[in-house]
Amino acid sequence: MNILSNKIRAQRIETKSLQEIAIMRKSSQIVATVLKEIEMIVKPGMTTEHLDRYAERRIKEMGATPSFKGYHGFPASICASINQEVVHGIPSPKRKIRVGDLLKVDTGAYFQGYHGDSCITIPVGKVSTKTARLIHGAQEALNAGISQVRAGNYLLDIAGAIEDKVREYGYSVVEDYTGHGIGRNLHEDPYVFNYRTKKLPNIKLRAGMTLAIEPIVNKGSKYTRTLRDHWTVVTVDNYLSAQFEHTVLVTQTGYEILTDRTAI
After folding, report:
1. Res 200: pLDDT
2. Which among 254, 251, 247, 255 is positioned nearest to 114, based on CA atoms?
3. How far apart are alpha carbons 61 and 113 in whole angstroms?
């Protein structure tokens, strides 16, 4: 969610019923399945358009529709962002994946009225030690944020854990884009920040909330710019960027990762 292009709204945070959660488990499992399969088939020489076609076909085969395609005019079913591209990379038949690339694949599925959303960062072939460390740091940042999810905790508990983990690695957190609530809409309240802030009220988490937590971690500067296609966001210094995202359910005692790929 882009905090610069969306008006700060009053908090209208929904908690989901057991029936709604059951549907979201399915939409999220579809997303997890697609990302797990993409991670397995990615290889050098493949185009990002090929991955997009694959994702759209698999989402539809599982009875859902792509959440991203047509969303505010986005033309594809996945975001495919490579290396210094931060988010919203548009798949293209001209964009071939190369050995050593850092590929971020973000996708969503809409099933029986509810969305699931997740992102992974894939090292293509052998990558440098520094690149592997960035990937690991971004994954650890997501894990740290999720570890703070439980009823009674606050949004800034998530944000602070993410920020601290990223700083521990010596990287920067992109501040222009945040996580978000998710459910009947792909983007719902609340904003789920990845750094400590006073821009919004520090909302207490309640069982039944569903959140898309998605830290974006840059090796260099936190600042970004948008390319002329009006979608693709890149780092201003051309340093690498990594991202991981899960759709997470808040429970009384902790959390459930609805887009957990290890459970498939």
Report:
1. 84
2. 247
3. 17
Contact 131, 237 (CB under 8 A): no
| Position 92 in a domain | yes
* Parent domain of 157: 18-259
Domain-located, residue 11: no
Could you tell me if residue 170 is inside a domain?
yes
What's the pLDDT at 12? 72
Total domains in the fold of the chain: 1
Q: How far apart are CA 185 and CA 66, in angstroms?
A: 13
CATH number, domain at 230? 3.90.230.10
**The residue count for the chain:** 264
Q: Tell me if 222 sits within 8 A of 237, measured CB to CB.
A: no
Residue reference for tokens 């908690």: 15
Closest CA to 240 of 81, 83, 79: 83
Q: Which residues of the chain have pLDDT under 50?
A: 3-10
